[in-house]
Amino acid sequence: MAHGAIENTDVVTRIDDCWNRIGTRGDGSCPKLAEHSRCLNCPVFEDAAARLLDRPVADMELVQPAASVPNALSRERASAALSEPAALATAQTTADAAANQSALVFRIAEEWLALPTAALRQVDNIRPIHSLPHRRNRVVLGLVNIRGALTVAASLGELLHLDRTVSGKYALSNGYARMLVAAHRGEPVAFPVDEVEGVVRFAASSLLPVPTTLAHASASHARGVLAWRDRTIGLLDTDRVFESLARSLR
Asked: Which range of residues forms the domain containing residue 237?
C-alpha cells in the first residue's frame, strides 16, 4: 500500500515509504535489512528517490498566482496578513532558505568528503570497471556500465593523493562501498567510494577555511571544511575536481 503521494495536475506519484514503517526509521522488521544494513543502501529506497526526482512538475508548482489566496479570505484580511512585520519575517525566512546548501557525505579510506548535491546524479552499487588499454594515469580507472551507458570511472583517492591505507574502525567497513555518479556540464563520471553517509544541509556561513595542514592536492580541490557530528568533512569544489579529471583524460 502506498503511504506517501506527490500529486500534480495530471499525475499522482505514489511512494511506499516502507523505511518509515519497517525500516531503520520504523520497527526494523524489514527482511532486506539483513542484506543492506540500512535503508540508505537498499534499492527500494533508491528507486523511491528516483521516482520522486523524476516526477513531472505541474505548472501550479512553478507559479503561485494571486488567486491562490483562499476566496474566503477578504482583500482586507489578505492585506493585513501581508503587513510589514509579516513581510519582513517572510523575507528573512526566504533569505535563510536561500543560504542553505546541501552535499552528499562519503568516505574514501579514512577521509570524509562531500560533493554538492547539484552535481550528483545517482548512488549505485559497485560495478565492474573495464580498464582502458595504454592508459597509465592512475586517476582514470576505466569504463563502467551505469544503467546501459558507458561512463568514465575515476579515483578521487588518486586525484586527491589520499592515503588508501585503512585501519581502526573503518578496516571492516568494505561492505558499504558504493559508486557515485556525478556530472558537470553534461559530462558524467563515476567515483567508487568506501562508504556513503547521506546528505548534509548547511548554511554557507558555517563553511570553514581549508586548514593549511591539509594535503596540497586536497586543499586545492576543496571549497572549505564542515564540522559535522564528530567529523571534519572536506567539501569539494565541483569545478576544480572536474577540471583536474579533464586533464587526466588527455
From this structure: 101-249
